[in-house]
Each structure stands twice: as C-alpha cells, then as structure tokens.
Design brief:
Layout: E1 2-5, H1 11-23, E2 27-32, E3 37-42, E4 59-63, E5 83-85, E6 88-90, E7 96-100, H2 107-120, E8 124-126, H3 143-156, E9 160-164, H4 168-174, E10 180-183, H5 191-200, E11 204-207, H6 214-225, E12 232-236, H7 254-261, E13 266-268, H8 270-274, H9 280-289, E14 294-298, H10 316-332
Helix pairs in contact: 2-3, 2-10, 5-6, 9-10
The structure holds phosphoenolpyruvate and manganese (II) ion.
Length: about 350
Amino acid sequence: MIIVMKPGARDSDIREVSGVLENAGLGVHISKGMERTIIGVIGDKRLLSSIPLELMQGVDKLVPIMESYKLAGRTFMPEPSVIDIKGVKIGGKELIMMAGPCAIESSEQIMAAARAVKKAGAKFLRGGAFKPRTSPYSFQGLEEEGLKMLKEAGEANELLTVTEVISEWSIEIASSYVDMFQIGARNSQNFHLLREVGRSGKPVLFKRGSATTIDEWLNAAEYIMSEGNYNVVLCERGIRTFETATRNTLDISCVPVVKENSHLPIIVDPSHAAGKTQYILALSRAAIAAGADGLIIEVHPSPKAALSDATQQLSPEAFSSLCKDIGKIAEIVGREFKNDSE
Ligand code: PEP
Ligand code: MN
C-alpha cells in the first residue's frame, strides 16, 4: 500500500503519518516528488486496520499495490532511483560504462585492461574471479588471488570494481575487495543467494536470467531489496530464444518495459547477448538509444588468448572506438558520456 499525500501537505503531516506507521511496527519509505509526497508502507498490511489514515492531516488517498513486487516497483517509488556508489551515480543523466575482461587471468592482464578501459571512459572495472562455466572442466577463475589483482588494478586506475558472486563463501571473500557484487544470469532466481547479497548491503548488479520474464526478474530483485538493500542495478544480457546466430537474443524491449514498471536503473550487457565481437557496437548503440543507463562490456588486452568468452571480448582499440560512438548517441538521447576524446 502507498499513501499519497495532498499537494500542499506539510512536512509535519508527513512526519505524523510516518510516526504512526512506525509505531504500528511498519516500515516506511518516503518519495518526495515535485508535487506530492508518496509514503510507501512496508510490512503486514493487517497492522494498518486500526489506523484511520484517511482522516489524518495532509493525506489524500490510500492506494493498494497490485504488483507482487513493491520495493522494485514504480507505484511504491515513482521517481527513478539513482544509485550512488562512492560518488559514481548510476541512473542519472550520465551514462555509466563498466568494462574489463570476462575473467581475471593475471595481474598484468587485469592491469592492462584497467588502463585501457579507464582511458576510454569506463567508471567500473569488471572481472570474474568465480566463474560459473557451462562445463566443470573449463577455467573456473582465480578466486581470492584474482580479487586481489582486481582491487589493485581498480585502485591504480581510479576505477570502481564489480565481480560476480555465486555463493555465501564467495560473498564473504569478495566483500573486502570489490565495490559492487554481480549476480549472474545463472543465479538470477537463486532466492537464497539473492537474500544473502541483500543482507550484505553492497550494491548489486543484477543480471536477468536467460529464461526469466521481466516480471520474474523484478520479483527476484525484490528478494534483494526486501533485505533492506535498495542499491540494485538491473542488467539485461540477452535471453534464450530459437535464434542461434547470436549467443542469446538481446531483449531491447525490456529497457522501456523495465523503465515503466520499476524505478531501478538498468544497464545492458551486449557482450553476453551477442557472443561475437562484430555485433557488440550495434547492440550497444541500440541499448543506449532505447534508454539504458549504461553498458557493461567485456574487454581483454588480447582477446584471442582469453581463457573464457574469447569470441566476445573487445580489444582496447575497439572498446575505445565504441565509447566515442556512444558519446554521440548519448547526446541525441539527452544523456552524457565523457570519454578520452573530450
Ligand atoms: C559474466 O558477466 O561474465 C557472465 C558470466 O555473465 P552472465 O551471467 O550474463 O552469463
Ligand atoms: Mn563472460
């Protein structure tokens, strides 16, 4: 349920209503819009039955929330969320670029990748240390040793870092090394893990599962948020369809659909969608044109030698040229993207 306050409601009215709700054991989330304030109520709605909310000063109406997800939904929080991670804002006017190799392979490799992506305009360095590979015999990642390299490369180049976590123990290990956790497609409905990253309090880059509907995805985001962690950034990375020309099918339509139904920022991963370097520029352009808040792109200093996802990792040169291109699209759609050419 949300409580819509009247346009002229005073701060003291808002405080009064919030106080009554909190005293009844309910959680409160206040969204101050240009015209009105909306108070979201979190908890068992039966606790509301004895409170005459409609009669309180400044209250306009009570609106039940129909969606099964509420913290992730627009009804509850009508204004777009801007997630601030150490001063880097995701979901604001500026487009945010995250880039780096699929997996951290050595300190030289991650350092070279970091230097290149920073120069091109990235704000986050990505790199997998726990790799959920399709085959158990493929390279599984350097784990903690890799995370040390990631942290060092991030710090040396003033980049924030993001890495995938796959279990409770990996959350524990990664937590002191990175600024943001990634939940990968394969774990997108691992509800126990989602609650765990929710409890960790660290910002989460939450990828869509390859066979997850938008509704299921937002419900899954609710698991993270229901633990009190609202710093969630959604990431579309392609879904499984009958088409085999690309690794997955990038669902561009999910960008406006998510924007309509959720206040959470959404970025796009064209690398895992395309699976092939030659399509990444086109998909990146489309994502930004459709309203995405940024991109996450795999970049490797020598892509052909990569230990995972070799066919989809961009060279530093290709990435730098993509960033220049994105700068131009950003302007057309009223966003900003700063890269090395400026
Ligand atoms: C990755 O980002 O390296 C990854 C494994 O992505 P996804 O979960 O989207 O497949
Ligand atoms: Mn990958």
